[in-house]
């Protein structure tokens, strides 16, 4: 039986500290928003939830640290899903408390909540990817291509968080109830699924990772983030006169749509023009990592049909 890989303790400590610190700050928001006898009940509920979360985190974080030097990111996807699932539930209750108490316009606390999410969530994704620990990606150019693709994932996470932050930051006129709920849970689903798709692309390719073959996430982000969020911001700007709409991120969505369309066209041309080269490259990568490469069938047939030495009549006598 093959022993499990050693755990990367610095990676486990760093990810655990980031998760616990962000959860503790969200708990502080929840407790601070409630006063009187209700505050004690909120403290008890938060503590019980944190204990259950810590029990699960104790095992998942160790498993993530054990796979950080491998080509797998399965446990990293589990940890990301668990973290965002619990964090967004707490964000939802904080947002509802701000919505119920519109007279309290503490702009600093609301902006601090946005800053907290915009730092902790993308940083945890970068830690889970652990691009610097990918020892199997030895080519500097290939590693930089993967880093550039992960940079777009981080920008997309910030894009989603910006739309979600418009719900609790100070506003003169609120959106309709159905629009607010739809926006929150749409962003919730995107934060849960899309980073996991990026991690799964790295995990599925394994050791022979090819950056230009990672096309699932760009296609999904083009539709779900760049196009739909552009429509959401445009609708808020035109119909609801929402002055908090970020014009910079709208420009980012337009540029991302143009760049991704051109990259899709280039990928299609490359796929149709040089398919044999990819097969040769795959064979070289396989041979480089110690796996036996089978010879072509024609070569095997030639080896089997090698003529035997002729036996003359003198040798029988």
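-> sequence recovered:
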């Amino acid at each position: 039986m093959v022993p499990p890989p050693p755990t990367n303790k610095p990676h486990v400590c760093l990810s655990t500290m980031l998760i616990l610190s962000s959860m503790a700050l969200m708990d502080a928001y929840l407790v601070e928003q409630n006063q009187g006898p209700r505050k004690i009940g909120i403290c008890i509920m938060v503590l019980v939830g944190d204990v259950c979360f810590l029990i699960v985190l104790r095992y998942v974080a160790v498993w993530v640290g054990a796979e950080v030097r491998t080509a797998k990111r399965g446990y990293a996807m589990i940890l990301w899903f668990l973290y965002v699932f619990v964090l967004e539930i707490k964000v939802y209750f904080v947002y509802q408390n701000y919505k119920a108490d519109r007279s309290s316009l503490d702009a600093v606390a609301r902006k601090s909540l946005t800053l907290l999410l915009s730092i902790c969530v993308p940083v945890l994704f970068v830690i889970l990817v652990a691009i610097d620990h990918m020892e199997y990606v030895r080519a500097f150019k290939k590693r930089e291509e993967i880093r550039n693709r992960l940079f777009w994932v981080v920008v997309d996470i910030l894009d989603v968080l910006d739309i979600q932050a418009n719900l609790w930051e100070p506003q003169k006129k609120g959106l309709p109830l159905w629009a607010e709920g739809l926006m929150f849970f749409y962003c919730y689903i995107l934060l849960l699924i899309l980073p996991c798709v990026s991690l799964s692309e790295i995990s599925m390719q394994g050791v022979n990772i090819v950056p230009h073959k990672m096309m699932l996430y760009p296609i999904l982000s083009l539709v779900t983030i760049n196009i739909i969020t552009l429509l959401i911001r445009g609708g808020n700007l035109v119909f609801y006169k929402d002055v908090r709409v970020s014009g910079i991120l709208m420009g980012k969505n337009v540029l991302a749509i143009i760049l991704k369309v051109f990259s899709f066209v280039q990928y299609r041309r490359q796929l149709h023009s040089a398919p044999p080269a990819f097969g040769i490259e795959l064979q070289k990568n396989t041979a480089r990592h110690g796996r036996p490469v089978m010879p072509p069938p024609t070569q095997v047939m030639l080896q089997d049909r090698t003529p035997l030495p002729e036996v003359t009549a003198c040798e029988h006598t």
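Confidence is low (pLDDT under 50) at residues 277-317.
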